[in-house]
Each structure stands twice: as C-alpha cells, then as structure tokens.
Amino acid sequence: MLSKQAKNKKGKKKTQSGMSRRSVLKAGAVAGGVALITSTKSFPTHLLEPTAYAQTSDCLVNPGTSPPTSAFVQALPIPPIKQSVASLNPAPTKEANIAGGEAARAKHQKWSQFLPQVLYDVHTMPGTHQFHPELPPTPIWGYDGIVPGPTFIVQQGVPVLVRFHNDLPLNHFGSGGWGIEQDVIHLHNGHTGSESDGFAGDFYNPGFFKDNHYPNVLAGFTTVGGAGDPKEAMNTLWYHNHRAEFTSQNTYRGLAGFYWMFDSKDTGNENDTSPTALRLPSGYGVHDIPLILSSKTFCPDGKLFGGPNGGTAPAGGDKFCVNGAVQPFLNVNRRKYRFRILNTGPARVWTLTLTTNDSLATRPFKVICTDGNLLEQPIDSTTLVLGAAERYDFVLDFSGNSIGDHVYLRNNATMTVGGTPPNPLPPNLNNIAMEFRVVGDEADNSQVPSTLCQYPDVNLNEVVGTRIWNFDLVNGVFQINGKIFDAARSDAQIVRNTAERWILRSTLPAAGWVHPVHIHFEEFRVLSRGLPVELGGPGMLPPPPLETGRKDVIRLNGRDQVEIFMRFRDFKGKYLIHCHNMNHEDTTMMVRWDIVGDDEGDLASNNPNFIPNPNYRKGEQS
Predict the structure, then answer these.
(1) How far apart are CA 104 and CA 101, in angstroms?
(2) Which of 20, 109, 227, 550 supports an S-S bond with 373, CB 3.0-4.6 Å?
C-alpha cells in the first residue's frame, strides 16, 4: 500500500509544501522530546524534562575576521583509529531495547543474516579542541569528544554494530546556544537498513543511545546471491550528524569522522603479494593519509562563530582546517602517498591544486577513487573540485622532489585565509590549506595499477521508469519538486530490487546555486549532464572523466541537469535525497523516498514526476 499524506492534529491534510520549517524542530525539541519516524511506522517519543545547563555563551556575533595565526607551525593531526570493544551492556538486540535506554527505532533488518561480529561504543559529547597553538582552546562537540571523530577501519563482509550514546548537554538549544543537542548519525553512503541509515527525522535526545547496524555488505546480495556483487565494493566512507534542520550547525561544531573499508583488492597492505591485491600506498596515517577539510571562523576567545538559534552554520569560514588543524604541515619522504580527502562542508566548494616551492605551476596526481569508490582506471588530474560531502582518493608521488621541497595544497576557489601574517611566506600563501615538506628517502613497495576495478553493468533494460527531481529556489525557500522537507511524507515509493533513471535538474531563473546532491543508500552512475535543448540549453553531453565512476554526490550547477542510473536493492525503508550544502538541506531542500515490497507499491509511485517505462517488463531484464 502506498504511503498516505500525514495529517495534522486536527486531522487535516498538510499543504503541498509539507511541514513548516520549524515543525520538525517542534516535534523533537519542545519539552526535550525526540522525533522518531521509522521505516514503516511511528513510535512513541521519549520525553525528557528540560533542565538548566551551566555553559559559556556561544559566539553569536560575527567577528568579521578570525584572529591572526601563523601558517605551517603545527603537524597534521591524524584522527585515532576507533578501537572495538569485547561486549556492550546491555547487549545489542534486533528490536530497540527501550527499557535498557535505547531510543526507539525499527527492528534491524537482516539481523540474523549479518549478525554483528565487531562492536564499537561511541559517545557524542562536548569537548575542547586546539585548532591552532596561537588560538585559545575551542569548545566543540565530537564523537568521543574529539575533532574529527575517530576513524573506523573495517573489513568488507564483516558486520559491525556501533552504539552511539548521546551525551550532549541538555537544553542547549533553549539556553541560547547554536546547534541542537539531538543526534542521529548517517554513515555516508553505507549499504544499510534504513533504521541505521541516519534518517534526518530519527534524532534522539541526550541520555539515550542508538545501535546502528552496519552489515558492510556488497549491494545486490538478494539478487546475485551470496555476499553481493563484487563490483559494488566501497572504500572511503564517512559519518556525521544528520539532525533535520541542524546538520550544518552540528557538523560544523565537529560531529563528523571517517569510516574506511578494506577488502581483497584494496587490502590496506602495499606488501600484500596475493593475486588480487592492488598494493596501493598503505599504513593508516603513514602512507595512507586522511585529509578532512573544513573552514571555520573564530572569535577572539577561541570559540567558533555560529548562527543563532534556528540559523545555519557559516557558509565559508576564513580559516582552512585539515583534520581539525589550521594550515598544518606534513613531513613526507620521496615515495608515493595515498591521500583521502573529504569536504565536510557545511557549504564551501573547494577547488584544489598542488604547487611546489615558489612556483604557481600545478603538478599532476593520480585520482583513484571518487566518493567511496575505486575508479576503473586511475585518472591523471591537476584539479579537484569538492562540493560538500564529496571525497577523492588520490596518489601523489614525491619521488621526483628534492629533499627540502615544499608542496602546497591550495584552494583556488578562495584567495584569502583571514588573519594570516603575510610575510615572510611563499607567494599567495593566503589560499594554502596545508604544506607537505619533503624530508627524506624511503623504500616504496606500493603501486598504482592501470586497472583498479570493474564497474557494475549499467543495464537500461532494468529501468522501470524515469523520476525527475527539480532543485528550486522559490520565494527565498529551497525546495525539491515544489516541496520542503517533511519527515512524515514519502514522495516516492520504489519497489525493492528495481532500477530507475533519475533526472536531477536546476533550471529556474533563480538557479544560480551549486547543489551537491546526495542520494542515500546506493551508488549511482552518471549517464549525461548538461541542459536539454528544449529547456534552452546546448543539449546533454557525456559526463567528464571524474564523473564516470560510481558516486553518491554529484554537483548540480545553475541551469544544469544530470541524468543518473540507480538501483534499489536488498533493504526496505525510508531514505533521503537532498542537497548536501548543509545550509540548503537545513532550509528544507531534502525529500524522503521509500523502498517498498512488491505488495506495497506500484511503479508509478503516485508521483507526477515519475514517467513509467512502457517497455519495462518485470522479470525480462538481463
């Protein structure tokens, strides 16, 4: 049965635009409650008594420019690897253990099939962080109280369970702070059941925990059988707060971290002589380096500047941070390194190049992953453009450098880093995010093979129809298909184990924004991009090289259209499509869509933006 429109307390249907922007907040924050809408039904909320919380006021007045800091005076921090635990108390259960303190959720799907073999215990909590030695310590929120959060190192095919405790301060929002003390964690872009996906309406209050079940399974295990399609491997994922309307503020405060997955190809061992091993540069934090990008604005007392209650995080701070450090340096040897770079947002688009010493000439590198996925072949590039949530893995070879060389990672989209002393420093210092210092020699057994993986087939005979998502700005309100986000409203019901062609479009006269569009749950392939002639454009063209692989975020420019191929396999429940400019998603540019069973939906999905494929015949696709 198709989902019906939610009704308000008086029994009247909601307007076409869905909930007001504050209604999601009211569902969870008034009286300290928690909004919980599960895959198939709603559960009672947990109600907490509001309590006073002694805290220093947040920085709500824009300082204009952060205090000055010197560049390249601190080494690049490497987030710690998250260690597993032998047991959890109470023990994890398939159904929510509400009596034991767990927030309400739907029961874990495929629990017995993917019984967790590794357990983790994480606390979402306040802390302090030293972004730069010349700045006062900064109050932050972090997973385990650190920024960035710890890095998970997991194995493909080994299911894990992560218990996330919400230990944030009660009544933070009501006491005049920015950000909100409710958490819900999205593993971006894990192939997981919706109850563990981090749906934006499933947030929960301090004092509760939630168990997220990550099967770490290859997509397609219900269709191709066994462990899934080996062509669907994922490698570089990340996790972050996804609380509706406060994702930008809570993530800006620090609620984000990496989640890396290894397998029989990407083994994490450059000395692995097994026939399938790629032998890419390896060793977490040694030759396989996380680079988590963010930009911050600091007040004179070291606090982060943030928007007041109900606002959004700053679109672009004036301090470039890598792994939570302002303009750090990293000592490297003359050999190959793998760098995994992530833009945590909330809004800035980074345009990155590499230069050496005083030269402004860009130097090439090899891109091996786009978002969480290996490319079929490495792509030589000199520039990376990252919208919020986009990732690239690239290999940079320093073997041709001289000892003493300085290599700079530059953000060419922004030509200033506020408050940085100008002398005596290299040319155009004020757009440098970090420095690599070539300090010595080292043996190098790593390689970058000419073939890294094989892509899954794009079989258009599987497509049941075409679905159109219009990303619009109407009267100052960000919308998708003319609606704002309503956690209780499903705008598409997609039959499990089918495929669709999706059109992402931004064509209104006001469409001057860049929307990095993220689709939860499954990877997609770009078929074409451009603007059709009938919409006043030059027509659709094949994707550029760095968009030919599997992706989960795609930048949608102004007056632009992107056509993608999507499959929907294995799990059921509610998922999201949204702009990952977190300020846009917080101002309601997000839509819920559901995966349903054969007896629960139809191909048309009762959606005017869905065009059935008249040639599709169930069971006849190859």
Answers:
(1) 9
(2) 550
